[in-house]
Design brief:
The structure is a single chain. The chain contains 5 helices and 7 strands. It is of the alpha/beta class and about 210 residues long. The protein has helices spanning about 30-60, 70-75, 90-105, 125-130, 170-180; strands spanning about 10-15, 60-65, 85, 110-115, 135-140, 145-150, 185. A 7-stranded mixed beta sheet has the order 3-2-1-4-6-5-7, sandwiched between helices. The protein is globular. Helix content is about 35%, strand content about 15%.
Length: about 210
């Protein structure tokens, strides 16, 4: 179904092609390479469906920002987004910077970016995020010290530079950087990410490759 898009904002899903040995590598000891890739596939599809529902309810446009594969492959796997963009080179900060800057340059804002690691995320969280973005920039804290969502009204150069990604300090350092840049932030509900074997209970079951 074609959404009626307006100036309600822009949703971006960061994900990667679910290739065995290259997806959810921290879960390979628990699930095996094929099982970890299958979990990446399922979580990405669930996150995409959540963003699609949020886009339908808010009028926001929807983008898939991907690593691995190409636009044709991603359109076949996750069909129906308004835009498909390769993440490009560099660390996560470089990729986030490019994605947000490009969206703002196309006059798509506010911009909300999520990954595919938070199975508890719902369309209601996205609606709450857009509401909060009327007067704040914001993040959705993850229980592991990172964040599952970041929303910005405007592009801010330097926000994502030199963050210690994949550590428990990501949220703290990002908020410190935001404060230094004069951004007024609001925190959403804390939700769990699924990145490591000890996170698997957050799925509600122990997934396998069946």
């Amino acid at each position: 179904m074609q959404r009626q898009k307006n100036d309600a904002g822009h949703l971006i899903l960061f994900t990667r092609l679910p290739l065995a040995g290259k997806a959810k590598t921290r879960l390979i000891p628990a699930l095996g390479a094929e099982g970890a890739a299958l979990l990446q596939q399922r979580m990405s599809e669930a996150a995409f469906a959540t963003l699609g529902a949020g886009a339908d309810r808010t009028g926001a446009s929807l983008e898939v920002c991907f690593h691995g594969g190409d636009e044709k492959v991603m359109r076949q796997w996750l069909p129906g987004a308004d835009r498909y963009t390769a993440q490009g080179d560099g660390d996560l900060g470089d990729k986030l910077t490019r994605a947000v800057a490009a969206a703002v340059a196309r006059k798509r804002r506010p911009v909300i970016v999520i990954g595919a690691d938070c199975p508890a995320l719902t369309p209601d969280h996205l609606i709450a995020a857009f509401a909060a973005l009327t007067d704040h920039d914001l993040v959705g804290p993850a229980a592991d010290g990172g964040y599952y969502l970041i929303g910005l009204q405007r592009f801010q150069a330097g926000l994502f530079a030199d963050i210690p990604w994949s550590t428990p300090h990501v949220l703290h350092e990002t908020l410190a950087r935001a404060n230094a840049l004069g951004l007024h932030h609001r925190l959403l509900e804390t939700l769990p990410d699924v990145d490591r074997p000890e996170d698997l209970p957050h799925l509600g079951h122990h997934p396998d490759a069946q």
